[in-house]
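User: Batch of two.

Assistant: Item 1 of 2:
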Amino acid sequence: MTAELVRGQNHTLPQTRLEIRVSAGSPVVAGATLGDERGTVRGAEWIAHPASHRVPGLEVSRQAAADHRLAVDLDALPGSVHRVTVLLALPLGPGQPARFGAVAAPFVAVTGLDGTEIATFTLTGLDTESAVSALELYRRQGVWKVRAVGQGYAAGLAGMLADQGVAEAAEVAASIQEAVASGLARSVTPPPRTPDGERVRHPAGPPASGNGGPAAPTPPDPAPARTETSGGPVDYAHPRRQTSAPPPPPPAAPPAAPGQPAQPVAGDATGWSMDERLYNQIWGMFEDLARAVAAYRSAVDFAESRMDQELDRALSDPRSRIGGAGDRAREEARAKHDELTGRAREALERDLAQLAAESAVVEPALPAAYAGWGNPVWHGYRVPMEIPMALRIGDLHLPEGIGLRIPLLVRLPLERGIWVDSGRTASEAAAATPGDRLRTLAMETAVALAVRLLAVYPADEFSVHVIDPAGSAAGPLSPLVDAGVLAGPTAAGAEGVSSVLAHLTRRVDLVQMAIRAGASDALPPDLDTAEQLLIVNDFPHGFDDRAVTQLRYLADEGPSVGVHLLMVADREDTRAYGPVLDPLWRSLLRITPVADDHLADPWVGHAWTYEPLRAPQGSRVLEQVLALVAAARRTGYR
């Protein structure tokens, strides 16, 4: 029976391997500290946080999120540890809430590895605090207990760490927030939630249990279930969508034969339309793969840690040196390790097979906005009458899921700009590609994205501008130029850069003033009300300080009023600006022209390999699509 704790109440823990689950209405930082018998944290090495997410017996999330799962193995803690304190803090940055009183009360649950709740605690009564000690696990007379704390700190993370005796608490807190900001910048934006706070997913097979969470220190026996997470309501504020609750999902596939998983179907999720159902289904597959791989990796880590501990005990026991006791102990430890990792691999392979089967039926059913360039749906392309809810900008995969690609879908209109990194990254593909070729591929990737955006918007509802100060991208830009779909000539030189930036900055200013005044009908007649995309090549070449300031302004203020950035740049070229441009890079979603494992999922924080979408060799699909878009614009078709 679950113990519903109130502040100050405690409860005995029936087991030592646990999960601590956190649910909040907005992204929070989750961490934990280890304390001695007086509760003192002896150093930074006793703090688990996003920049250092693992300490002995404890693992936390690597980024801020609305939902967390912390893995705890009390038996694996250092012997001098008597207390584990779970910490929550609000991430710093523009647009982030500054106090817990402005967000929904966080909910914390201590569970077993099977998800059974042992104790729960809702952190009510917080106001100006931006950090809080949520609960603590403590050892008394050899027995572990949990206590609901709920102690908030208006001084934030630094004040909370200082209260626990951490030396240089301000520096440690700053490093944590820096890691959180970097994690948020590389994390893809999760989908919105359903009205009741749950993101509904309908499993293609029979229900299964398992920890499925990040770094749960145990091998999963059955396959992890598709996890539902909690959070705020869905915003259905689409220009042409109702605002009431969505209809139920389509009828499920016929029941499978006993012992066999059900056959997956395309659109097995909630939504107003098939496109919305497919969008939610793809994000469900994304989350399923993230959690299944997290469970597998945690199981392998646990098996290796357990084997190391058993081997250490065997080697430290003098009796093991007599006869063959030592050899038998080592063989038994390795056998247990192989059994645990084998069971974990079997569970992962079941999950991967189910997801692969689902992907096989989903991919052929995708609309053009969600489909790769090789999908036959592009052969029947017609200029749409409505804006789709999302756009595919690439594929994601993990090393465990060989051959399984998850479409990376971003919401439309774009909520943040995109940066195509033309520099040499640490990936093998980048290392094997000459620098000049990387820059060309980066611009080709940007052009392909611009073509996709032009293709999925109604005619004359999307305009594309290009800044190419040195004229070095003439080749990759030729499809857009030849089709005549650009809003104007490619801007070159300092004068061209200044002219385009001034034009778009003026548009942002005018639309913002009209919105604030409630006078959208008062906009100048010469103002283009279509969504605007600015492609910038080789930044910061050709940019003076004023142009850089304008570009940062467009990155910050533009998306809310329909002005979006598509940057092609090597960050190394901007080192002379120092940290001034850090907010710009963090505001953009970074992608690469070649395979690179830099993007993180919003649930577990895996490093996913991103691959851009490319047209099949010899295909002229981009040119054919652009020709249809140009023809629709000439005839005024919408």
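Item 2 of 2:
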Amino acid sequence: MKRRALAVQLLSAGRTTALSTEGGRIRFWGIFLAAGLMMLGLSGLALAYATYEGRDMRGAARTPQILQQGSADKAVALWAWGNDDVAGRQHSVTYIEPLVQNAPLPPGLNKWPEPGEAVLSSALIRAGAPEGIESRYGKLAGTIGKEGLQAPEERFAYVRPRANLLDKHDMYPLKGFGVPAGSAAGVGESMSIPDFSVLAAGVAGFVLLPAGALLLVSARAGSTARERRLALFEALGASRGARGIFTLGEAAVPTILGAVVAACVLLPAFMLDIPFPLVDFTLSAEDVRRCAAWLVAAAATAILLVLAAAVLLHSKRRKSAREVRPTVGSQRLRASGPWMFPFALLFAVRGPELAGDDLRLPVYALGVVAVLATLPVVVGAFCGWLGIRLAAAGRRLGLPGLLIAGRRISAKPRGTARFVTALIVMIGLVAQVQLWTGLLGENATLAKQTQERIGSTLLSVSPYADADRVQDFAAAMPADTELLLVRQTPPNGESPGKITLSGTCAALRALDLPCKTSQFNAARSGLDPRVGELARWSLAGGDGVVTVARGPVEGAKAQGEESLSLVAVSKSGEALSLPRLREAARTHLAAGASADPLGQSWLLGSNDLAALATWVRLLGLIGAFLTVLAIGISALAEFLRFSREIAPLSVLTGGNGVNGSVVAWSLLFPALLASALGSTISMWLTTPITVDGGAPVPGDMYVLLGVGAGVCAVALCAWGWRSTNRAALRWRPAPD
């Protein structure tokens, strides 16, 4: 009973003194922010997992139960899958055809569409409105219900082909819809999003790591006065548990308040679908409600982490119970700390090469986190080592500022490490954001260059169909458009590849080609740019033969290894109407026909990567915000302690010269060193993530990053010097 009463008194005493000690207010609000943001970060992991699980469940519910050959079950419908794109983003198109009355419906449909009708998701209708998506697949028959979509903003379409375009031999028979979760075919949005491990690595690196840095600097704010008080408790006979309960009382209120505010932020997500800024994503309230238990666990974990950090991050028991001031030894870094950095760097740079494809990104993310967590320790250890030599030099040369600065940084390497932690994490985050948003494959780059040169003045149309369908398509094209047949023969070991362009004289002249049979090398100069680009994409680089022949485009038959396709060209050189030609192709050639600029598939793949880059930007923005908070709290706490330590010396020396020297070596030098090392190490950390052997981020960016961080460091330290000078003017002796 007495122990319980004592514990309550210690908790109450800790709560009472939380705001009254040196740096108490900074620590209170820092822990408040760290608790709330740590809870939001852990909740983000839980919500991400629940979202992926929900996608898998809803995707499994709409996956067809395809009948295998020889199955005794009766087919009730036909099913096929294709894709299309609007606004530069791919989406899935599912073709369905019922075979019996009362055939089971896919989830999200309340009736079977009629032949030539389509049912689209609301997100697809909104995104594709400028491109005429409502009529591209036929008559719009309704919208897909939420239960039929993997995510609220998924772009998806169900299409029932027109009777004259129904190719049953290209469709699969099925007995119904719905397969066990985890065995879905992956049709839909899940095909173009990264694995959960990728998003989890992003949340861990861009959110939880800065939140951890914020927690570290907040828990140690005002540590000198707090350790002095704990040392007094120890001298009076307080046990380690009693000291821990007192410290728990200091941190409990801001921790619980931060968790409550975070819970209030999450509460609307239980009732409403929440759209995210910067990214094309809406959080499903259904998924949030399903993971309520995980969110409670995330909140409990965040509270425990913050309280554990607040209690454990203080000095160890002293050798003498009568010593009530922090000792120099209490500020020493562990001897093993700096030596962990090279192993972390080796793990980050070489570890992904040894990991499997599924683990490569998590291993890389873990290595980056380890490097950014251990690099501040290296800076602190180096400054501690240098401080001993600076103190010796200051004593030998008679320079009091150098002597004081050297002794200070040699005695407090942990304080130096904490001061530069947020700055190093900030540099690492910016570098990683630039790295992941700048990735672009070689073929995607070539596709982008091609479209910049010729735009949509030439479109590749596929598949090639029978004569009647090709004639109907040609008749439906705009007046400024001509059609050419392309026969493509792939290269082999004996001869280069070749393409043959056939069409009317008007079609050939649209590309400045002669209206007679002729042959030339694809690399010949003076060709219409569209011919050169067509040859380059058809012949894998443009090294081959181009044959021109006058003749019909319909009714052709492939010979040997030939492949047949069509190209639509603009006679005037103006851009063709892509939506109109796509609708004409799907109306007359085939239900899944396409009309695309050259290299479109590669460019769409890069656009999926660009969509991933928007997530990197969003998470990076959150991480930058958290890191700025950490830098601000760290700087405020450090300047407050620094000002109180140096103020008496300024009074005794009668000037600000000592202040300037101590600020330069104690604050500015570690910050500049952290800026230089942070930018250099960040450049090394990009080596495992390369595209076609090249680093995607220019080297000049790291120079600018280091210079920018250095300028910020100078500004912060100038602020520190000003704070020290003002504190010296206000200083009066006090019995502390």
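The radius of gyration is 34 Å.
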